[in-house]
Every structure is written in C-alpha cells, then in structure tokens.
Write a structure and sequence with these properties.
Shape: globular
Oligomer: single chain
CATH superfamily: Cytochrome P450
Radius of gyration: 21 Å
Strand content: 5-15%
Distance between the termini: 62 Å
Number of domains: 1
Bound molecules: protoporphyrin IX containing FE
Length: about 400
C-alpha cells in the first residue's frame, strides 16, 4: 500500500540565515525519499528521483510564481508568460528550438579564449592590490561581459547593460515586491534595447549569434516578436546569477582546501573540469527544480497527488550517499560524478547554457590559479542566502 504525503517528515522552517542545510537534509534522507518544505512544496531528496519528476508526470510552473506575488499584468508578467523557462509542451518546444540550434556548443566553447582573456584582464589589474570585491568586480563581470560579446553589444553600452542585468535578475523567480517598479522599468528598457539589436541584425546581418537566431526564427515562423526577444533576455538572465554565484562558491571552497588549491595551481588545465564539477556539486546555487504533478504518481511508494508542487532538491541530491562516496567531502579528484551533472537539470528544460557556464567558470578559475596562486579569502567565508537561486552576501579575496 502506498504511503501518503501525511507520512513524510517536515523540513524545519524559519531556520536562521547561515544555518548549514546539509546535516538536516542528511537526516531527512535517512528517514525516507521525500520531505515537506515551505508552502506545501514536497522535496525529493535523491538523485534517482530526477527522471521520475522531470517526466510527463509533471509540468513546469508557468505564471504561478508571479500570480502568487500578486503580479498578473505588466512587464514582469509578460516576460514570464513569454519565456521558454516557464512554458510547457509545444509552446516550450517552439521557443527553445531556435535558441538551441544557434546558441550551439561550438559557439560557446569558442568563448573559452575570450573568457580567459577577460579574466586575465580583470584579475591581472588587481594582483597585489589588497582586498577585492570578488562578487561585483569579477564574478558578475564574466558572464555579463561574455554574453554582451556574444550579442555584439558595443563597449559604450556595457555599463547600462550590466545595470539592467543587476536590476532584473530577480525576474526569474520570486521578486522583492518593493523593488517591482524598478525591476519593471529596467526590464522594459532592456527589452527595448534587445528589440533594437534584433532589428539591426535583420537590416544588416553579421556573422554572429543574433543574426543566426533572427534568421532561424524567420525560417521557423513560429514565434511572436515578444517571444523572439524574450528568449534573448531570458538567456542573459538565466546565465548571470547562476554563473556568478557558482564561480564564487567554487573559488571559496578551493581556497579553503589549500592542498587541493595548490594541486590545481600546478596543473590548472588538467584539473579545471573536475574543479567545476565538484564546485557545482558541493555548494549549488540553484537549490532545486520545482514542478507541478499533472497526475497521481509515486516516488518510492509515496503517492504524489495531481496538483502537488514537487521539487527535486539539488542541495540534497548532490550529497546523495547512494551516488557520491563521502558526499560531505569537497574533492576535486572525485571520480563518481555522473556523466550528466544534475545541477543543469534534466529533460526538456535542461540548461541550454551549460557549455558556456563551464567555459566561463573553468577559464576564470584556471586564470586565477595561473596569475595569482597565492590568492587568499579575506574575512568570513561567504554565506548563501536561501532562495531558488541562492545569492552570496559578500566575498572578498586578495589576489597575490
Ligand atoms: C553554473 C551556471 C548555471 C546553472 C547551475 C544553470 C542551471 C540551470 C537549470 C537547473 C535549468 C533548468 C531549470 C528547470 O528545469 O526548471 C536551466 C535552464 C536554463 N538555463 Fe541554465 N544554468 C547555468 C548557466 C546558464 C547560462 C550561462 C545560460 C545562458 C547564457 C543559461 C541559460 C538557461 C536557459 C535559457 C534555461 C531555460 C531552458 C528551458 O527552459 O528550456 N544557463 N539552467
């Protein structure tokens, strides 16, 4: 007989900021496959639950997160309604296909030398200069400037482009409602700017991503103008806070494990892939991927009724002792990473920016190891604030 949701344990709520979530999740895993979290959301705790949740048992959340916050019209609502991330079925396929075809692995991997050169410029200027705000001066700059390069944004527009990204990154999840006017004003200006870029490429195509993308959408003929530009804005936002936070936490872990940091500095090119795999596993900034059950189904004998919001908890599943030996140990030499890192999701919505995120992270970290092998963390270890995409409070390093 099936167990029901009434039988599963509750994740403690209202934990003080900075609470280490991992012992709590470990304890829950010992009790069973699932737990209840805030707002009635059910979290699945193990890696093997990924496929059953990312299947036709469920659908992606659409505008629900915005509606829950009282946002039912206006720029934020329109963005959510038109983005591939919040779409299902045929609508999702139509929006994703032209991006997937043109934002291809080859293009992203070709950004490696650019990421390395940018990191060398940003880090090189700061070696032996005392403490640096790593979050703002390095980790936020890399993804924003690389995507600006991919989109062919003129240097003069970089400051406003960076400002729009900072203002609108929250659009992907729950927002701070007091900031809604500012977020919406920036989102509108940002969307207008992207519209102009697209018009430029239609008028005068170049040998670049945006030109390929507009040509592909014209060939497919399946998207509205709003959908065409929203996928571009969505790409920019989806790649920003995720990569920024992941870069910070991976470097923070490395610097806190001096023998592994030294090994990395001796051979950054061989070890960079393992470093990024482990950084993304050990302290994931994306905490999980929520879905809505569209029919009754079971996870390890527990019935999930249709309508339940069920989220695969990355925080738990990336420390799953069934998959990772000694999961609470940070180990860049680990050999038990699955072939597909779950931090990039699974199924129809699996991240389209994985290769770019990896290129940016690997090349930035390898550049720091080469140019500044005596780098130290300054002050306290950075703290991640709770949320769907966890934000770092602050992180300072001294490059040397
Ligand atoms: C370390 C960095 C990153 C992480 C951890 C990450 C993680 C994820 C995850 C888990 C999803 C699936 C969400 C879901 O199923 O609900 C996703 C989707 C997505 N990601 Fe990433 N991502 C990263 C970097 C990037 C970059 C650099 C880009 C592009 C520049 C990007 C663009 C996207 C887009 C457009 C989607 C939506 C795909 C769809 O709905 O079909 N991501 N990402």
């Amino acid at each position: 007989m099936s167990m029901t949701l009434a039988d599963i344990p509750q994740l403690p709520l209202d934990l003080p900021p900075g609470t280490d979530p991992y012992p709590i999740l470990k304890d829950l895993r010992a009790k069973g496959p699932l737990a209840k979290a805030e707002m009635g959301i059910v979290i699945a705790l193990r890696q093997r639950h990924l496929d059953i949740i990312m299947s036709d048992n469920t659908r992606q959340l659409e505008t629900e997160t915005k509606v829950l916050q009282g946002i039912t019209s206006g720029p934020l609502f329109e963005f959510t309604k038109a983005a591939m991330l919040f779409a299902n079925g045929e609508e999702h396929r139509r929006r994703r296909a032209p991006v997937q075809r043109t934002f291809a692995f080859k293009l992203m991997d070709a950004m490696r030398p650019k990421a390395a050169a940018l990191a060398a410029e940003l880090v090189g200027d700061r070696v032996n200069q005392g403490p640096v705000d790593f979050v703002g001066e390095i980790a936020a700059q890399i993804p924003a400037r690389i995507i600006a390069d991919i989109l062919g944004i003129p240097r003069a527009d970089l400051p406003i482009f960076l400002q729009w990204i900072a203002d609108t990154a929250e659009a992907l999840g729950f927002i701070d409602v007091e900031r809604r006017p500012q977020i919406e004003a920036s989102l509108t200006a940002f969307a207008d700017y992207v519209t102009k870029l697209l018009e430029d490429r239609r008028r005068a195509p170049k040998d670049d991503f945006l030109s390929d993308y507009v040509a592909q959408t014209a060939r497919d003929g399946e998207l509205s103008e709003i959908e065409i530009r929203t996928q571009v804005v969505g790409l920019i936002l989806a790649g920003s806070d995720t990569t920024r936070g992941s870069l910070c936490m991976t470097l923070a872990q490395l610097l806190s494990h001096p023998s592994q940091w030294r090994a990395f500095c001796e051979d950054p090119d061989t070890l960079k892939r393992g470093v990024v795999d482990e950084g993304l596993r050990f302290e994931p900034v994306v905490t999980g991927i929520p879905r809505v059950a569209v029919k009754d189904f079971e996870v390890d004998g527990v019935l999930i009724p249709a309508g339940t919001v069920v989220s695969l908890s990355f925080l738990s599943a990336l420390r799953d002792e069934e998959v990772f030996a000694d999961p609470d140990r940070f180990d860049i030499f680990r050999k038990d990473h699955p072939r597909w890192h779950m931090i990039f999701g699974a199924g129809a919505h699996r991240c389209v920016g994985e290769a770019l995120a990896r290129a940016e992270m690997e090349e930035t970290l390898a550049t720091i190891a080469r140019l500044a092998p005596n780098t130290k963390l300054v002050g306290n270890f950075p703290i991640l604030k709770p949320g769907a995409i966890r934000q770092i409070d602050r992180m300072e390093v001294a490059f040397a």
